[in-house]
Amino acid sequence: MRDWEKEKMAGDPDTEREELVKFAKDWDWHVRRAVALNPRAPLEILRELSRDKVQWVREAVAGSLQADDDILDLLSGDGDGFVRAAVALNSSTSPDTLSDLSWDEMMDFDYSLSKNRYIVQEAVAKNPNTPEEVIRTLSEHGDEGVRAAAATNPNVPEDVLFKRRIDQSWAVRTAVAKSPQVTVEILDYLAQDRIQDVRVAVAQNPKTSAESLRSLASDRDVEIRVAVAQNPNADPETLAALSGDWSWKVREKVAKNPSTPKEVVRALAEDVDQSVKKAATARLEK
Length: 286
What we know:
mainly alpha; Leucine-rich Repeat Variant; single chain; 2 strands; two-stranded antiparallel ribbon
Protein backbone atom coordinates (compact mmCIF):
# COMPACT_ATOMS: atom_id res chain seq x y z
CA MET A 1 0.00 0.00 0.00
CA ARG A 2 1.30 3.45 -0.95
CA ASP A 3 2.59 5.41 2.07
CA TRP A 4 1.70 9.03 1.36
CA GLU A 5 3.26 10.34 4.56
CA LYS A 6 6.59 8.70 3.80
CA GLU A 7 6.44 9.99 0.23
CA LYS A 8 5.81 13.52 1.51
CA MET A 9 8.82 13.34 3.83
CA ALA A 10 11.02 11.99 1.03
CA GLY A 11 10.22 15.03 -1.10
CA ASP A 12 10.57 17.57 1.71
CA PRO A 13 13.71 19.78 1.29
CA ASP A 14 14.00 19.96 5.08
CA THR A 15 14.27 16.19 5.55
CA GLU A 16 17.61 15.15 7.04
CA ARG A 17 20.22 13.59 4.79
CA GLU A 18 20.23 10.33 6.74
CA GLU A 19 16.49 9.96 6.20
CA LEU A 20 16.86 10.61 2.47
CA VAL A 21 19.46 7.84 2.27
CA LYS A 22 16.97 5.45 3.83
CA PHE A 23 14.10 6.63 1.60
CA ALA A 24 16.27 6.17 -1.49
CA LYS A 25 16.37 2.43 -0.69
CA ASP A 26 12.66 2.12 0.10
CA TRP A 27 10.70 -0.77 -1.47
CA ASP A 28 8.09 1.69 -2.82
CA TRP A 29 9.26 3.35 -6.04
CA HIS A 30 6.95 6.33 -5.33
CA VAL A 31 9.10 7.12 -2.29
CA ARG A 32 12.33 6.72 -4.24
CA ARG A 33 10.97 9.01 -6.97
CA ALA A 34 10.06 11.60 -4.33
CA VAL A 35 13.69 11.57 -3.19
CA ALA A 36 14.84 12.07 -6.79
CA LEU A 37 12.46 15.03 -7.09
CA ASN A 38 13.71 16.55 -3.84
CA PRO A 39 15.63 19.76 -4.72
CA ARG A 40 18.10 19.06 -1.92
CA ALA A 41 18.79 15.42 -2.72
CA PRO A 42 22.57 14.81 -2.43
CA LEU A 43 24.43 14.02 -5.64
CA GLU A 44 25.50 10.55 -4.48
CA ILE A 45 21.86 9.60 -3.90
CA LEU A 46 20.89 10.84 -7.35
CA ARG A 47 23.75 8.84 -8.81
CA GLU A 48 22.41 5.70 -7.15
CA LEU A 49 18.83 6.40 -8.22
CA SER A 50 19.93 7.00 -11.81
CA ARG A 51 20.34 3.21 -12.02
CA ASP A 52 16.98 2.43 -10.43
CA LYS A 53 15.03 -0.39 -12.06
CA VAL A 54 11.87 1.75 -12.30
CA GLN A 55 11.63 4.14 -15.24
CA TRP A 56 9.72 6.83 -13.33
CA VAL A 57 12.49 7.11 -10.74
CA ARG A 58 15.19 7.46 -13.41
CA GLU A 59 13.03 10.02 -15.22
CA ALA A 60 12.81 12.09 -12.03
CA VAL A 61 16.60 12.00 -11.71
CA ALA A 62 16.94 13.02 -15.36
CA GLY A 63 14.87 16.11 -14.69
CA SER A 64 16.72 17.13 -11.54
CA LEU A 65 18.70 20.35 -11.72
CA GLN A 66 21.08 18.83 -9.16
CA ALA A 67 22.11 16.06 -11.57
CA ASP A 68 25.66 16.50 -12.85
CA ASP A 69 27.08 15.88 -16.33
CA ASP A 70 27.98 12.26 -15.55
CA ILE A 71 24.44 11.42 -14.47
CA LEU A 72 22.82 13.21 -17.38
CA ASP A 73 25.23 11.66 -19.85
CA LEU A 74 24.42 8.20 -18.46
CA LEU A 75 20.65 8.77 -18.63
CA SER A 76 20.87 10.23 -22.14
CA GLY A 77 21.53 6.65 -23.23
CA ASP A 78 18.74 5.16 -21.12
CA GLY A 79 16.61 2.47 -22.74
CA ASP A 80 13.41 4.42 -22.00
CA GLY A 81 12.52 7.34 -24.24
CA PHE A 82 10.76 9.30 -21.49
CA VAL A 83 13.96 9.28 -19.45
CA ARG A 84 15.93 10.57 -22.44
CA ALA A 85 13.28 13.24 -23.04
CA ALA A 86 13.64 14.39 -19.43
CA VAL A 87 17.40 14.75 -19.97
CA ALA A 88 16.72 16.73 -23.15
CA LEU A 89 14.46 19.12 -21.22
CA ASN A 90 16.86 19.61 -18.32
CA SER A 91 18.44 23.07 -18.43
CA SER A 92 21.59 21.59 -16.87
CA THR A 93 22.19 19.25 -19.82
CA SER A 94 25.32 20.08 -21.80
CA PRO A 95 25.24 21.23 -25.45
CA ASP A 96 27.17 18.11 -26.51
CA THR A 97 24.62 15.77 -24.93
CA LEU A 98 21.79 17.75 -26.49
CA SER A 99 23.45 17.47 -29.90
CA ASP A 100 23.59 13.71 -29.51
CA LEU A 101 19.94 13.55 -28.41
CA SER A 102 18.83 15.64 -31.39
CA TRP A 103 19.08 12.45 -33.49
CA ASP A 104 16.82 10.50 -31.12
CA GLU A 105 13.65 9.66 -33.07
CA MET A 106 11.73 8.06 -30.21
CA MET A 107 7.98 8.63 -30.70
CA ASP A 108 5.01 8.51 -28.35
CA PHE A 109 1.31 8.71 -29.18
CA ASP A 110 -0.35 11.88 -27.87
CA TYR A 111 -4.01 11.06 -27.31
CA SER A 112 -4.93 14.73 -26.89
CA LEU A 113 -3.69 15.42 -30.42
CA SER A 114 -4.35 11.93 -31.82
CA LYS A 115 -0.88 11.77 -33.33
CA ASN A 116 2.63 10.52 -32.69
CA ARG A 117 5.18 12.99 -31.36
CA TYR A 118 8.97 12.99 -31.40
CA ILE A 119 9.20 13.70 -27.68
CA VAL A 120 13.01 13.70 -27.37
CA GLN A 121 13.63 15.92 -30.39
CA GLU A 122 10.89 18.33 -29.27
CA ALA A 123 12.56 18.56 -25.87
CA VAL A 124 15.97 19.21 -27.43
CA ALA A 125 14.46 21.90 -29.66
CA LYS A 126 13.11 23.76 -26.61
CA ASN A 127 16.23 23.59 -24.44
CA PRO A 128 18.09 26.94 -24.15
CA ASN A 129 21.42 25.07 -24.07
CA THR A 130 20.86 23.55 -27.49
CA PRO A 131 23.48 24.76 -30.01
CA GLU A 132 22.30 27.10 -32.75
CA GLU A 133 23.14 24.69 -35.55
CA VAL A 134 20.96 22.03 -33.90
CA ILE A 135 18.07 24.48 -33.56
CA ARG A 136 18.41 25.30 -37.25
CA THR A 137 18.37 21.61 -38.19
CA LEU A 138 15.33 20.83 -36.03
CA SER A 139 13.48 23.86 -37.42
CA GLU A 140 13.54 22.04 -40.77
CA HIS A 141 12.23 18.77 -39.31
CA GLY A 142 9.46 16.97 -41.17
CA ASP A 143 7.25 16.98 -38.06
CA GLU A 144 5.36 20.17 -37.17
CA GLY A 145 5.71 19.53 -33.44
CA VAL A 146 9.49 19.60 -33.64
CA ARG A 147 9.50 22.70 -35.86
CA ALA A 148 7.11 24.47 -33.47
CA ALA A 149 9.31 23.53 -30.51
CA ALA A 150 12.36 24.99 -32.28
CA ALA A 151 10.46 28.23 -32.82
CA THR A 152 9.88 28.52 -29.06
CA ASN A 153 13.56 28.20 -28.18
CA PRO A 154 14.71 31.44 -26.47
CA ASN A 155 17.83 31.43 -28.65
CA VAL A 156 16.18 30.72 -31.99
CA PRO A 157 17.83 32.83 -34.75
CA GLU A 158 15.71 35.59 -36.29
CA ASP A 159 16.15 34.24 -39.81
CA VAL A 160 14.69 30.89 -38.71
CA LEU A 161 11.57 32.64 -37.44
CA PHE A 162 11.37 34.66 -40.64
CA LYS A 163 11.37 31.45 -42.69
CA ARG A 164 8.91 29.65 -40.43
CA ARG A 165 6.40 32.55 -40.59
CA ILE A 166 5.15 30.95 -43.84
CA ASP A 167 5.25 27.38 -42.52
CA GLN A 168 2.41 25.23 -43.81
CA SER A 169 1.48 24.32 -40.24
CA TRP A 170 -0.57 26.86 -38.29
CA ALA A 171 0.87 25.38 -35.07
CA VAL A 172 4.35 26.41 -36.18
CA ARG A 173 3.20 29.89 -37.22
CA THR A 174 1.51 30.25 -33.81
CA ALA A 175 4.76 29.27 -32.09
CA VAL A 176 6.59 31.89 -34.16
CA ALA A 177 4.09 34.55 -33.07
CA LYS A 178 4.67 33.60 -29.42
CA SER A 179 8.46 33.51 -29.66
CA PRO A 180 10.33 35.96 -27.41
CA GLN A 181 12.70 36.50 -30.36
CA VAL A 182 10.03 37.39 -32.92
CA THR A 183 10.36 40.78 -34.62
CA VAL A 184 7.70 43.42 -35.15
CA GLU A 185 7.93 42.85 -38.91
CA ILE A 186 7.12 39.16 -38.56
CA LEU A 187 4.23 39.92 -36.21
CA ASP A 188 2.85 42.44 -38.72
CA TYR A 189 2.92 39.71 -41.34
CA LEU A 190 1.25 37.11 -39.11
CA ALA A 191 -1.46 39.58 -38.06
CA GLN A 192 -3.01 38.87 -41.45
CA ASP A 193 -2.93 35.08 -41.02
CA ARG A 194 -6.10 33.21 -41.94
CA ILE A 195 -5.97 31.02 -38.81
CA GLN A 196 -7.55 32.38 -35.65
CA ASP A 197 -4.99 30.86 -33.24
CA VAL A 198 -2.16 32.62 -35.05
CA ARG A 199 -3.91 35.98 -34.92
CA VAL A 200 -4.69 35.47 -31.21
CA ALA A 201 -0.99 34.87 -30.53
CA VAL A 202 -0.11 38.05 -32.42
CA ALA A 203 -2.73 40.05 -30.53
CA GLN A 204 -1.33 38.79 -27.21
CA ASN A 205 2.30 39.56 -27.99
CA PRO A 206 3.49 42.77 -26.25
CA LYS A 207 5.81 43.44 -29.21
CA THR A 208 2.96 43.71 -31.72
CA SER A 209 2.75 47.16 -33.29
CA ALA A 210 -0.10 49.57 -32.59
CA GLU A 211 -0.97 49.44 -36.30
CA SER A 212 -1.44 45.67 -36.31
CA LEU A 213 -3.41 45.83 -33.07
CA ARG A 214 -5.67 48.46 -34.61
CA SER A 215 -6.37 46.11 -37.50
CA LEU A 216 -6.98 43.13 -35.20
CA ALA A 217 -9.37 45.20 -33.07
CA SER A 218 -11.95 44.84 -35.82
CA ASP A 219 -11.54 41.06 -36.08
CA ARG A 220 -14.81 39.15 -35.95
CA ASP A 221 -13.40 36.75 -33.34
CA VAL A 222 -14.05 37.95 -29.80
CA GLU A 223 -10.98 36.16 -28.38
CA ILE A 224 -8.76 38.25 -30.64
CA ARG A 225 -10.45 41.49 -29.62
CA VAL A 226 -10.05 40.50 -25.95
CA ALA A 227 -6.33 39.99 -26.54
CA VAL A 228 -6.02 43.38 -28.23
CA ALA A 229 -7.93 45.04 -25.41
CA GLN A 230 -5.40 43.87 -22.83
CA ASN A 231 -2.28 44.48 -24.91
CA PRO A 232 -0.29 47.42 -23.45
CA ASN A 233 0.82 48.39 -26.98
CA ALA A 234 -2.72 49.17 -28.09
CA ASP A 235 -3.05 52.90 -28.73
CA PRO A 236 -5.71 55.09 -27.01
CA GLU A 237 -7.86 55.30 -30.16
CA THR A 238 -8.01 51.51 -30.49
CA LEU A 239 -8.89 51.09 -26.81
CA ALA A 240 -11.54 53.79 -27.02
CA ALA A 241 -13.13 51.99 -29.97
CA LEU A 242 -13.07 48.66 -28.14
CA SER A 243 -14.70 50.24 -25.09
CA GLY A 244 -17.93 50.12 -27.09
CA ASP A 245 -17.60 46.45 -28.04
CA TRP A 246 -20.73 44.31 -27.62
CA SER A 247 -18.76 41.77 -25.52
CA TRP A 248 -18.40 42.62 -21.84
CA LYS A 249 -15.15 40.60 -21.80
CA VAL A 250 -13.59 43.06 -24.26
CA ARG A 251 -14.83 46.11 -22.36
CA GLU A 252 -13.55 44.67 -19.07
CA LYS A 253 -10.04 44.23 -20.50
CA VAL A 254 -10.15 47.78 -21.85
CA ALA A 255 -11.00 49.02 -18.35
CA LYS A 256 -8.02 47.15 -16.90
CA ASN A 257 -5.51 48.17 -19.59
CA PRO A 258 -3.04 50.76 -18.19
CA SER A 259 -2.91 52.41 -21.63
CA THR A 260 -6.62 53.19 -21.64
CA PRO A 261 -7.34 56.95 -21.35
CA LYS A 262 -8.87 58.08 -18.04
CA GLU A 263 -11.99 59.45 -19.71
CA VAL A 264 -12.68 56.05 -21.29
CA VAL A 265 -12.26 54.34 -17.93
CA ARG A 266 -14.68 56.84 -16.34
CA ALA A 267 -17.25 56.02 -18.99
CA LEU A 268 -16.82 52.30 -18.39
CA ALA A 269 -17.40 52.87 -14.68
CA GLU A 270 -21.02 53.50 -15.68
CA ASP A 271 -21.23 50.35 -17.84
CA VAL A 272 -24.37 48.20 -17.62
CA ASP A 273 -22.26 45.11 -16.95
CA GLN A 274 -21.16 44.69 -13.35
CA SER A 275 -17.81 43.09 -14.20
CA VAL A 276 -16.89 46.01 -16.46
CA LYS A 277 -18.08 48.55 -13.91
CA LYS A 278 -16.07 46.85 -11.14
CA ALA A 279 -12.88 46.76 -13.24
CA ALA A 280 -13.20 50.42 -14.22
CA THR A 281 -13.98 51.55 -10.67
CA ALA A 282 -10.93 49.68 -9.37
CA ARG A 283 -8.74 51.44 -11.95
CA LEU A 284 -10.06 54.86 -10.96
CA GLU A 285 -9.52 54.14 -7.26
CA LYS A 286 -5.85 53.38 -7.94
